[in-house]
């Protein structure tokens, strides 16, 4: 996830996880608001075809810069072994899934009196 990737960066370790995640979320939201405004303005001024072409070139350029920087800084990335040490593995067995399902679906409300319900079920079972 993005949060786990961001929390492992050197800058976040320097300024603190709370501050780093706050800055990350802030700029993420700025992009979520400004992106549609910029694209709408470009579409109104340039038209659909030119806007799509410019955004395609921009996206491709950003991807190339990202992969170039990533390949140059590959030694600074956390190793896969270290990342997997902290990951939570999902349960594999049917028994675990069955227990989880039962615990979610068999909750009993302690405030509700179920004795009348039990006697009704018992009475109908005796009739059959």
Keywords:
128 residues, mainly alpha, 7 helices, 0% strand
Instruction: Report, as a whole number of angstroms, the end-to-end distance.
Output: 56 Å
Model regions low in confidence, pLDDT < 50 over at least 5 residues = none
Sheet having the most strands: none
Which radius of gyration do the C-alpha atoms yield?
Answer: 28 Å
Which structural class is indicated by helix and strand composition?
mainly alpha
Based on CA inertia axes, which overall geometry fits? Answer: extended
* Helix-strand topology string: HHHHHHH
How many beta-strand segments? 0
Count of helical regions: 7
**Beta-strand level of the residues, as a percent range?**
under 5%
Mean pLDDT: 76
Tell me what you see in this structure:
This protein is an all-alpha fold and 128 residues long. It is 77% helix and 0% strand. It is built from seven helices and no strands. The N and C termini lie far apart (56 Å). The mean pLDDT is 76.
Spell out the blueprint of helices and strands.
Layout lengths: L1 H6 L2 H6 L1 H30 L1 H25 L7 H6 L8 H12 L9 H13 L1
Nutshell version of this structure?
The chain is mainly α and 128 residues long. The chain has seven helices and no strands. 77% of the residues lie in helices and 0% in strands.
